């Protein structure tokens, strides 16, 4: 699965979020694409980011191993359940941009 965004690297980091832990992509409910971040979507898409239901499987994807998760699995994890790459804990502050909370 590809991750869309501005200056996206092989693990999903973008021009806006580039720390080692910024490897999570969120799926837009409107277009179905995975995006590196909300700012990338705002710059490149022609529609508002469609927030995903909390129980939607595959609404979040690890950019390192492409493991898909729903909100509950992602929000409970400090690292990818499959490859163990750590996630950025600060992403929790943006949950309402990506999910129907």
From TrEMBL:
SUPFAM superfamilies: CHY zinc finger-like. Pfam families: zf-CHY. PROSITE patterns: ZF_CHY. It comes from the Bacteria. Keywords: Metal-binding, Zinc, Zinc-finger. InterPro entries: UCP017292 (IPR016694), Znf_CHY (IPR008913), Znf_CHY_sf (IPR037274). Residues 7-85 form the CHY-type domain. This is CHY zinc finger protein.
């Amino acid at each position: 699965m590809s991750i869309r965004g501005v200056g996206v690297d092989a693990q999903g980091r973008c021009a806006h979020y580039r720390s080692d832990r910024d490897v999570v992509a969120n799926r837009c409910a409107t277009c179905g694409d995975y995006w590196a971040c909300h700012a990338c979507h705002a710059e490149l898409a022609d529609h508002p980011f469609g927030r995903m239901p909390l129980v939607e499987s595959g609404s979040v994807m690890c950019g390192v191993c492409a493991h898909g998760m729903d909100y509950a699995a992602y929000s409970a994890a400090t690292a990818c359940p499959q490859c163990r790459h750590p996630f950025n804990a600060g992403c929790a502050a943006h949950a309402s941009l990506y999910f129907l909370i």
